[in-house]
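Sequence in, structure out.
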Amino acid sequence: MGSVKKVGIVHYRAGRTDGVSLEMEKRKTILQSLGVEVRMISGPVQRGSDFVIEELEFDAPEIREIKENAFGYFGNHHLSSARLMEKIHMVAQKIETAFREYHRREQFDALLVHNIFSHGRHIAAASAFARFARNTGLPIVSTNHDYYWEREEYQEPTSKSVQEYLDLYVPPAYPNIVHVSINSIAREGLLRRRGIDSVVLPDVFDFHQPPWVRDAFNADFPEMAGFSEQDLVILQATRIVPRKGIELAMELVAELNRHKSALEGKTLYNGKRITSDSRVVLVLAGYAEDSAREYRQWLEEIARHLGIEARFIAPRIGAKRSSNGDKRYSLWDAYVYADLVTYPSLYEGWGNQFIEAVFARKPIVVFEYPVFKADIQPEGYHYISLGDRVIREQSGRVKLPTSALQAAAEQTMKTLLSPETPRHLEENFAIGARYHDYAVMREFLQKHLCS
């Protein structure tokens, strides 16, 4: 690809099934198809990284301490401002030194960094790579999936020193760094707050790959996941964190359970016949971050309270299929067996699982979060709506208004049974391919890495 022969891709983690890891893999695939060597750089929580920097792990005790002392939300302010800044610079120096040595060996022509210059969870990493960028002049494309000010927990810096640091490095305004925002709302926010312009580049997907199908490898997936061929299978493919609003999917499953008799004896859009023995099963394929373990346990309690069948299968799902040791299925295998996909996120930077469901030609249930309404809905997809409003209870749980839940359940039943649904799913696929195929990313990389 012109003078660019070797590119490093940097993030806190790699090779997982979260949205950022998936986007990194897509860039790697596209660059390799253009003849570029690619190296993956991450912290120690990874699968398949070429170089590991221990200090890049955001859940490490030292990094959590910095985060919790830098932002008022966490209420953990035992470090003085001076001591906090000292710790930030110490960690940044370790990261920069490690990466400089790796760059000296590899001699990268450009870097792609993800969230390093934008997220609040690991602000020390930002100055490490900013100093590297300033001192080397290396071309860098910074994809900012999450700006710190977009999250409630990072909106109140604890001191003037922290705010000045954020203004300088999160993100930095250097001529050799091209900033990418993944939606129009984020772009406007960056421009308004920092006067930094950015390119809007939403998530992409390989719409030219073979369709995901049943085969010898995934034939035993239903047995592993605890459902039968006659069950109505609903997939929740996201990670398990509170902002994904997974309790809304559980509410919908419970509502569908109450109306299951209306489906009995009928055939769904995909040819599956529902019987009196059929169950409505929610399959949760995503993993829970360490910080979300309580949320996962709480979801299990909610499922029991609602009396629904919920299957948490993350330990058996990987970014890729594997037969070494415990068999791991890919996330794509989960889509193969789904009759319906739920996407009830309260907030997303864009929507990886939405576009995956579009490619898989599955009906999608969506909570209309702000970015969905601003950037995705206008593209013209068919979907089932959970509305755009929730009720927040004192416990922290979010619920749908009764009218929205009932309307979503009714629309879901109609969609599952409608002979028009296959046509609508094909139309969704065509829209997704038009706006989000790899060709969009390929053109962007060629333009910005070669200029």
